Amino acid sequence: MEQSKQYLINPFKIDVDPMERLLLINFEKDPDTIYVAFEPQVFDDTPHGKGHLIIGWRQDGKVDIFHQPSLKLNPEDYDIVGKGLANIVERDFTDGL
Prior knowledge:
Order of helices and strands: EEEEEHE
Radius of gyration: 18 Å
Shape: extended
Number of strands: 6
Number of helices: 1
Structural class: mainly beta
Strand content: 35-45%
Mean pLDDT: 84
Low-confidence stretches: none
Number of domains: 1
């Protein structure tokens, strides 16, 4: 009797970002006119460089990314967040490091 082969299909792809620190500041109950939350992140690794990044979670479900010039970011990595990427803006953060 011949045995049938069974296959497992994995529909998930998991990536791990080597992030130093992350904080989620959520103010949905008292929202700003544009944002409902901010997510500051700190990177210090080879793929991204060293610096700070802030994700601004918008009322419309999209995100804005503000980052220091020292970071190397791929906008496509952030277009999958929420309803997608609205803006990616390079900024100097005073006393950021």
